[in-house]
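PT: before anyone asks, these are the final sequences, not the draft ones from last week. 1212 residues across everything. Please model them as a single complex and drop the result in this thread when it's through.
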Amino acid sequence: MTVPQAKESTVDVLIIGAGPAGLMAANALAKAGVHVRIVDQRPAKVAAGQADGIQPRVIEVLQSYGLADRLLREGNQMHLATFYNPGPDGGIERTGRAPDVTAPSARWPFYVTLHQGSIEAMFLDSMAPEGVTVERPVIPTLLEVSKDESVLKDPQSHAVKVVLKYLDPEQGQADIEIVRAKYVLGADGAHSWVRKALGIAMEGEQTNYIWGVVDIIPDTDFPDIRTRTSIHSLNGSCMIVPREGDMVRLYLQLMDADVVNPETGRVDRDKMGPEKLMKVASKTFHPYSIRAEEYHWWTLYIIGQRVAAQYSAHERVFISGDACHTHSPKAGQGMNASINDSHNLAWKIAHVVRGWSDMSILKTYELERRKFAQDLINFDKMFAAMFSSKPRTAQNKDGVTHEEFIAAFQGGFTTGVGIHYSPSVLVNADHQAHASKLVIGERVLPQTFIRAADMRPYEIQDLLPADTRYKVLVFAGDTSDAAQLARVRTLAAAVGSPSGFFKTYGGADVFDILTISSASKEKVNYTDVPPIFRSHWSKVLLDDTEMYPRTDAGGGYEKYGIDKTEGAVVVVRPDQYVGIVAPFEKLDDITDYFAAFMKVAAQTVL
Amino acid sequence: MTVPQAKESTVDVLIIGAGPAGLMAANALAKAGVHVRIVDQRPAKVAAGQADGIQPRVIEVLQSYGLADRLLREGNQMHLATFYNPGPDGGIERTGRAPDVTAPSARWPFYVTLHQGSIEAMFLDSMAPEGVTVERPVIPTLLEVSKDESVLKDPQSHAVKVVLKYLDPEQGQADIEIVRAKYVLGADGAHSWVRKALGIAMEGEQTNYIWGVVDIIPDTDFPDIRTRTSIHSLNGSCMIVPREGDMVRLYLQLMDADVVNPETGRVDRDKMGPEKLMKVASKTFHPYSIRAEEYHWWTLYIIGQRVAAQYSAHERVFISGDACHTHSPKAGQGMNASINDSHNLAWKIAHVVRGWSDMSILKTYELERRKFAQDLINFDKMFAAMFSSKPRTAQNKDGVTHEEFIAAFQGGFTTGVGIHYSPSVLVNADHQAHASKLVIGERVLPQTFIRAADMRPYEIQDLLPADTRYKVLVFAGDTSDAAQLARVRTLAAAVGSPSGFFKTYGGADVFDILTISSASKEKVNYTDVPPIFRSHWSKVLLDDTEMYPRTDAGGGYEKYGIDKTEGAVVVVRPDQYVGIVAPFEKLDDITDYFAAFMKVAAQTVL
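LR: through. Structure below.
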């Protein structure tokens, strides 16, 4: 009998951990044609419970990968937030209803709740045609980044060595594999092995609030059971999160006496269980009744808010998702932050692996996402404290009022639509005034334009898919006006010149140019637009109402703060965030923007 | 060697012909659990050309079968109609643009163009999980309806004998099968064998207008090539129909000299071809150029408008689609009329086969659909004549003006949303005044309501799927008002009584009850609604704006002409057409409506 030799292999990107953060990255990289592998220590994907809330911005992100249809088909939508407080007789009573999402720019003004296993299945099914599946159960046992500067400087070097151990190897196969990867992503959760291997500390602290969570199909006379309800009762707080089908999740505030072992002073899971959680719920819901026949999932947690001190080692090994930040689940941010982390990182790695960009863009991942995590933690501290506080009553004048709580609830942080990335090589706000309301460093505001050739309405975000290309939006002004059209032609000549960014940095492989005319729908001819600004008849849009108005098309120039006589060129990053804006006469600033991090293309597809 | 014996079999419904009419019926019956078979003489489904325009109403119909998503994903949308007429120099010039669909109630205000093969694939994929596939190539050789009155009166008798011949039988298999069917549908096209076997005449006449059709990917400087364009030129007329991908269909008016054989006086297909059609197009398009590298499909046709004298024999054998009516393709009605025919018929057959209804409802098929076909033919005569006429010029003062043409074009007939079925056992307009704008005999007007339990907006049509159930819409008024709620409870008691229609005619198997409250979103409790009016938390709707208004929800009572203090009960047929309306106090009229054609259920699912 021979002992099988350890396998050796190379890969562009190795992802460790197949939760939402890892799968999001794996799918994005697989779709981008990057050679990617993903391993996980669990023998199968999660079947119940865990994270389940998808924020409005993440619906937009999933849509950019073609995944929102399925999410919306399978998930539950939360449109309504309801608030209960103690009534005169001590039982709870409704003190108000409010929209669950008030951000005016949210394209989908609601949260979606869907079991984490269904979210993971969505990614798995999407990347299967690319030949990528999760290898499991597999754990990493060694992680080494090259110490050789020349190796680290070469973006194509396999600078990271990882030893993988197969926990359930096939008969006769080695249980060890040595993988040499160009880049590694640790998406291995709050107890991240990768983070620990890199010696990255978590900064922050634990609170004393202990909560229980239980998933049930309720039998109740409570009239708001299908809405996101925040209950502040004299018996503790509760948040109701309705889910797919008839399922409902209850977050229940627990008293130390319920769960803490008096001898050890630590939370004792054995002291609690779903039946006991339902007893807590019964007290909280009084005078309404709530019962359940069975419990689909339950857990306990202590709120802690912490952020990793670094998000990467040498821009070769990255961490994302829960490996970088932990916080309370009730603000509904866990899975969202994870998906947004990986969405931010994946296209940057793809550009570097393809040789389009130099490695400097990888530094923006930590810059952009760690800042976000810190903001999130600050919000979460405030929100969690307010939720865990007693309600204001005649006896407790320091308690939280309905109005204070609702103000925090609707603060707008949780929708994700306002995420703002600071200036960097990828975010240049010098000419913000030329598109004053299309904030550079934020995602492109949803807006319906009509397609000039056939007057079909399109949401602009649907023309900005996550296909790894930069989208160049030429706000051309009134192309049915001869003088304006002459300006546009001059601009087109500059963009299309041999020294222009388009030909220099990769042409149509790298850039998708869309033209947005402000001509009227009666007068526009899409054929007037210079060829480089309309590679296909579908590439010319119009800022006008529909022929027979049904959508909110029209008014896009005003919404974006762009002058119709002046026009503007807007560069949108592959992740839908605005990178740079320039007036026609400052086209060189766009060329300089790309020159700072892109490599001159050997060949250009026009 | 033994000669294989002819097979003998029985089936509920045998469909002959697997074009859109046959497949629509097969899918609907298969989904309804009816034992159905479908045969076709062609060895494979169509691969190119043929009918391709889907009207707004048919998008709604397909949505009710869960098929609209795919249609909208794959198809092209026509939002814009453009009109060209001769300019001062004799070449064509644009004289106007208009919405392609102006019907305010169209839920999808555009036409979809998609290759007939893709439409057929949609039905094939939908019914495959039900175990129904097209048997081909197979032709019928004999059709006999029983002459025994007692057999004909028994809805469950296999009263029709059909002999099928397999054109390509498997080795050792008989090439003949004797099928005894309860019902037969002839969906075998304009030259219908079934129609001829029944001896049904086509009434109407042929015109002299000869047209050519060609599908191309155009190379052109014509700025309206992606819109539905009607060209009246001095060199003949043309209609452009843009299609999926970059394909465009041209309908070109031909001169007799182009296509008629002078010796025989008949159209000679050999005289014409796609290259010649493109030469005709070049003259028509002048001063614009139009060329094509290749031709995907082409044909010639002479406009004829004819309707079958009968649509059925003894309500045992039916014909639908082109077997019943032929007309010009340019009004875009062929496939639409076919789909609507089968949509009208399928649920009625399902109800009779299940023993829910007696056979009298089958008579309404001819009543409803033949009347429609006659209206269609009258419209088509006018429209085709106008399209084939010369444009009005200084020299031709009898020609058609742009204004005359556009008035006919936008007449609203072609969208299908205004199809009206006359009074019958299924259409009772006695109490029309109680829902004055929800026209009895027409499809339910699209309207967004919000779901009371979670405030999620729903288009009402999406709650009226083609699941063969009657939908009972209880417009309950303000259920947060105690006096009104008392009236609703009285109504609920009557509906739920042992002699009420609900329990008498099949309960939840047959009826889906939805309640629409006019309470405000701040005050409503869905739990107030009596249990029989909310079999699930999702069954209570609200006529109010959204929490954070994004859709056009709200104002439904006004739109439907229903008084909020009085309320109304609206019965919607399984095909989304309004059957009867009654005020609360006239509930007996609804019971009488069902009593006229329904059978008392042996068992009732509540």
